[in-house]
Amino acid sequence: MLDNLKLSFQSIFAHKMRSVLTMLGVIIGIASIIAIVAMIEGQKESLKSSLVGTGNNSIAIMFQSPEAAAMGGSDMVMMGGGEEDPPDVIPTITDEQLEEAKVPDLVKSIAVFYQNYTQAYHLNNLSDSELYAVDDKYFSIFPIKMLEGRKIAPVEHKNGSQVAMINEATRDALFPEGSAINQVIELNKVPFRVVGVYADEKSEEDNMFMMDAGMGKIYLPKSAWPHLGSFNDIPQVLVQAYHSDQLEEAGQVVADSLNSQLPATSTWQYSIPDLQQIMEDINEFNQAFTLLLGGIASISLLVGGIGVMNIMLVSVTERTREIGIKKALGAKRSVILWQFLTESAVLTSIGGIIGVLVGLGGAKAISYFAHLPFAAPVPAIIGSVVFSMAVGIIFGLIPSMKAAKMKPIDALRYE
């Protein structure tokens, strides 16, 4: 076997250009499959992280209609709504209600916030940003790194002060030539003073709310939300459990507690998403999508396999006298067969390895520039290399059998 591997590498490197062109179909096929699976796995992990609370053990509680709840809680009610049928009761969540819902050793923290999109202005500069009106518990669930200034102070949360924290993207858009600290920005024509700038870093918050970490984002006290004229918006609730296996239980306990505070006439209720059903739906979709795109990419492997068979037939023809000499010296059919099978398998395996590297690099580049999640699919990587080797064996079988069946006298006479 070692002699066959040595001969295989000698033959491949003796015809470098031909070998590369032969491997090209395999490389493209494997690279396509790896890139597709990597992007799908990355998206799957991102959705899993946002839904199951991976990392910070948090889950969003939704205030929604019976119809939305029956669909599994897939439609989170955002500020500003967008719902055709508004809720019959706009809930008010007090600190006392939150304390009552906070079960010891189960619920670590509860945060209430509002969310909307807005345009922030400073002089003639404009920034399209996500707007978050948060309470003082929010940053215990989603920590941030300050670059300039400070966080919103507890007294500012309590008094509804018109202060704001902005991220780097918002700062760069509104204050391209100077510091943002203590400068005034306008949100819905209402002035807010900037007290801090925080870093644009991918966080669990971005995963949960499917956001781009590089987009504009502004935080202000939840108590200042009415200053923007938003009196009837629906608050959103985040629940953080002590442990990931307590996540659904913690979310349900808090939802039940908040529901008990609603008027009996309210048809809308707080509920948590059906995480298991959502994950099953995601897995089914990803499997079907992977099979579809994998089938398309496999066409490249088929073309590559045919190319390998063609080149191996050429190689057998070129080495006819070598085969004749080996047979004249007593080499068995199996020896000749395995020599060419090994060469074919090595050729496609090298192509498979290169294809894996190209696929991972391509998927990483796409995820970086398009701000999409990426995950290295280890089973797909191993399977692709094994499959590329199998392609070499299958498509190299006919040329190898042709070489093994040659008669020594005919091979020696070949010109």
From TrEMBL:
Regions that span the bilayer: 20-40, 288-314, 335-358, 378-398
Subcellular location: Cell membrane
Membrane topology: Multi-pass membrane protein
Signal sequence residues: none
Domain of life: Bacteria
GO molecular function: ATP binding
Domain MacB-like periplasmic core: 19-252
Domain ABC3 transporter permease C-terminal: 296-408
Pfam families: FtsX, MacB_PCD
Keyword terms: ATP-binding, Cell membrane, Membrane, Nucleotide-binding, Transmembrane, Transmembrane helix
InterPro entries hit by this protein: ABC3_permease_C (IPR003838), MacB_PCD (IPR025857), Macrolide_Exporter_MacB (IPR050250)
Entry's family note: Belongs to the ABC-4 integral membrane protein family.
Protein name: Macrolide export ATP-binding/permease protein MacB
Source species taxonomy: Bacteria, Bacillati, Bacillota, Bacilli, Bacillales
